[in-house]
Amino acid sequence: MNIIPPKSGASLVLKSGQRLKVTDIEGMQVSDILFYNRDDVAEKLSSGKTFDYEETILLTKGNYLWSNRSNKMVRIVEDINGRNDFLLAPCDMKTFEHFYNMDGYHPSCFENLYKNLQQFGIEKDDIPSAFNIFMNVQFKPDGKVSVVPPTSKAKDYIIFEAQMDLIVALTACSAKDSNGGTFKPIGYEILD
Amino acid sequence: MNIIPPKSGASLVLKSGQRLKVTDIEGMQVSDILFYNRDDVAEKLSSGKTFDYEETILLTKGNYLWSNRSNKMVRIVEDINGRNDFLLAPCDMKTFEHFYNMDGYHPSCFENLYKNLQQFGIEKDDIPSAFNIFMNVQFKPDGKVSVVPPTSKAKDYIIFEAQMDLIVALTACSAKDSNGGTFKPIGYEILD
């Protein structure tokens, strides 16, 4: 298993049919993940298309995640914890100013996704809302959303099966409130 | 008032401080709307950033709509009907295949947004989830979403105030189920 240290990220190529396992090693740690078509990176993950085709905003085992071109990118083939978020965009420097009143440098999922994707020719503005594994965003009938600690336990995992050749980037999330107040590592491995 | 005929679209430039009024002329008609930074079209509307900063998935009077760079693009200063959607991506040809079992040509919001935006150098893959004015998407605690007829009545309107110089595209939506089974026009006017 590859280890993503706290508040950092990684990227990899996943071929069609291959499976990617992402593990919350210690528990209560979110991982933002993004998918791009390996052969044309302008095709990328889309929350809006996914909510539309899957007819749900809560995605788990059995659901597909879709691209902006209405193609299936991955299928979730296992999901031990079962709670993920696809509503909120990756945390960035301005998120920390807004929600945490921080004005100095702080690592962010946006930076960690971008740093690992730029080698594939992907620009900052090409980073859409990520699929936030293990993130626990609650929503009420009046639409109000709130970020609460993940319910994931140590060694909980999710497995994605690629539906096309993909570039994948993922993080160990850097936003305190999303991770129950502490920063932990994330594990990943390709299963052939 | 400018009229967008059924199943078509329009675009315009809206300067910072100007207000745009969008009217459901006959009632029960959705309009998908998109905003881009006029001076750099790589900055565009983001549902994920908006849900994050506004802490709600139901946006109405008083809320801002935010960009992928965490900047405010517009403020909703009036909203007579009050129900809008920001979860689902614009309908496209594949939407009609998937949900309506159509395999021939059909106008779509995606095409009508793109056709009106390409003159500004905006590509198909640069079209994110739009803000769907008057669209009535219900969601349940288990995450399931469903599209039901709009509750908007004839002459209901919404007003956006630009927070930066903007390129705006908007449609009279082409998806039957989103509009109570019929296709109607949409009106818009710039209020100085």
Largest chain interface and its two residue counts?
A: A-B, 37 and 37 residues
> What oligomeric state do the depicted chains represent?
homodimer
How far is it from the N-terminal to the C-terminal residue of chain A, by CA?
13 Å
Shape of chain A: globular
User: Structural class of the secondary structure composition of chain A?
Assistant: mainly beta
Measured on Cα atoms, how large is the radius of gyration of chain A? 15 Å
Task: Give the overall average pLDDT of chain A.
Answer: 97
The percent range for strand residues of chain A is 25-35%
Largest sheet report of chain A: 6 strands, antiparallel
| Count of spatially separate domains of chain A | 1
Poorly predicted runs of chain A: none
Protein name (chains A, B): Urea carboxylase-associated family protein
InterPro entries (chains A, B): DUF1989
Domain DUF1989 (chains A, B): 3-167
Organism (chains A, B): Mesonia ostreae
